[in-house]
Amino acid sequence: MTVKYVGSAGEEFDLLNFRNRLQDANFHAYEWNYTEVKKKRKSEITEFTRSAKIYDATIVFQGSYEDRVSELEKFTNISERDILNETPGKIWFGEYYAKAFVVAASTYPGDEPNWTIKEVAFLCPSPFWVREHRYSFRKNESDPEGAKRYANRYPYRYANGLINSRIVNDHYADSNFLLTIYGPIVDPVLYIGGHEYSVSIVLEEEEYLEIDSAAGTVVKVKASGERVNAFHNRSFENSVFEPIHPGGQDIGWSGRFAFDLVIYEERSEPRWR
To answer: Which is nearest to 262 in space by CA: 126, 131, 153?
Structure first.
């Protein structure tokens, strides 16, 4: 089991080793808010929502005074940088993470020699635990058009020009995703579970397109790293933000470009196994 805090800059702080150990943190606690309309003999629930969640936790720092001071400083430096940059870090619990800020802390001597106790409060603006499922689809170099040509006799292509594959979303609910399409390609189109995702745009070599369904953004990233808003290049007939439905989903595309798909499994608590 891995339990750690990873700052927004990528610095990791292990919370489950011989030197630092997380205690009394109930990451399997959650609560839904609801809107209630009271009637004569019953209530009608019209909406469920979620608020930010605070997980109170205790971290035991063990070792020599020098070791404890070093680890305490490291933890503070990582977590405070996230606060000042207004960018959350991540609490990792096994394969799941929740975006979090450390918004409160207090430190005092432990009951055992060479122990220091730190009480902290992890604030999760989005109170969901996330596991990422990653898929990569490479460009078809052998036949970039993805369909069979017939020389001399037929002036057009047969078949639909799509290369088929399949993914599985084993979550119990629709899932958000991050779709990254790599150039060079003009007006990329692909299908997930029969739904069309298309953007009218030109991507040159070393450029790529990011579609983030949760944020509702479409961004072109140039070779220089410049990020350009491509929201209005998206298809207006078929939403490019359509979530990935549960179960097996067929993938279809021309094979003329590569793309990556990250599916976000979001739960109120991490899986128990």
So the answer is: 131
| Sequence-ordered list of residues with C-beta below 8 angstroms from that of 130, at least 6 positions apart, any chain | 96, 97, 98, 264, 265, 266, 267
Tell me the C-alpha distance between 7 and 79, whole Å: 6
Q: What is the pTM of this model?
A: 0.86
DSSP 174-197: -BEEEEEEESSEES-EEEETTEEE
Parallel, antiparallel, or unpaired: how do β-strands 96-109 and 163-169 relate? unpaired
Q: What is the spatial distance between Cα 244 and Cα 193, in angstroms, rounded to a whole number?
A: 8
What does the pLDDT look like over 149-200, one tens digit per residue? 333 333 323 234 566 889 999 999 999 999 999 999 999 999 999 999 999 9
CATH topology of domain 131-267: Jelly Rolls (2.60.120)
Q: Could you identify the residue written with the tokens 């070393």?
A: 206
Q: Which CATH architecture has domain 3-127?
A: Beta Barrel (2.40)
Gyration radius (Cα) of the chain, Å: 24
d(CA 232, CA 216): 12
- One-letter identity of residue 247: G
Partner residues linked to 129 by β-bridges = 267
What is the location of CATH 2.40.30.200 in the chain?
3-127
CA–CA separation, 263 and 222 (whole Å): 24
Residue 129 parent element (H or E): strand 129-137
- Summarised one tens digit per residue, pLDDT across range 62-100 is 999 999 999 999 999 999 999 999 999 999 999 999 999
CA atoms of 255 and 87, how far apart (whole Å): 37
